[in-house]
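Replying to the earlier thread about multi-chain prediction with a worked example.

Input:
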Amino acid sequence: MELSPNVTVLDHPLIQHKISMLRDKNTGTNEFRSLVSEIAMLMGFEALRDLPTKNIDVETPLETCKTPVIAGKKLAIVPILRAGLGMVDGILRLVPTAKVGHIGLYRDPETHEPHEYYCKLPAPIEQRTILVVDPMLATGGSGSDAIKLIKEHGGVKIKFMCIIAAPEGVKKLSEDHPDVQIYVGHLDRELNKDAYICPGLGDAGDRIFGTK
Ligand code: PRP
Ligand code: URA
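Result:
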């Protein structure tokens, strides 16, 4: 599949190794949660490499120097509920001062269309770098609607990060939102007839929260 310029697959061996562990149906809830968090941190490290910085004066034991810190209104992490919640603490470990918004969407099991049930974003959203997180990008409906909602609330600088994506979801998201940088852990083969990603990892929300 030809990827558009706003899509980056983060094919670091550590990320790929942990994704392989996630896929295993014998990986239990506790380990699954830890892996999602670790992968989010590794991916976040790369996805946030263009965070703006400014120089401040710091006194070392030897002298005063100008040295960079993260500048301006900081990051907003916006998980898509439920499964996106599993990625938040990994990124908070990188940027502890980030604010966290929430968007609640669920996929209708028959139509696979997303339905919104919650939206709360940290102000001033228009001044923040916004990192939308969801482990799974399947049809792309949920990701695309979440970003549309954030834009309607004034969000401008938006990035989207998922652990596993289907080609269909990457295509939809990059076409609907060419201004959004998309970071993917692994690009899988296809969707099945129930719009599950194959080979995938199953239902991410259920595996994180132990609900099935
Ligand atoms: C899953 C997943 C995404 C969405 C992806 O959530 O976490 O949000 O499906 O599918 P799409 O790209 O086809 O929209 P789900 O709706 O199962 O809700 P949950 O996280 O509450 O389990
Ligand atoms: N949501 C999931 O959790 N898994 C899939 O494969 C597709 C959508």
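The chain is about 30% helix and 30% strand.

Feel free to reuse this layout for your own posts.
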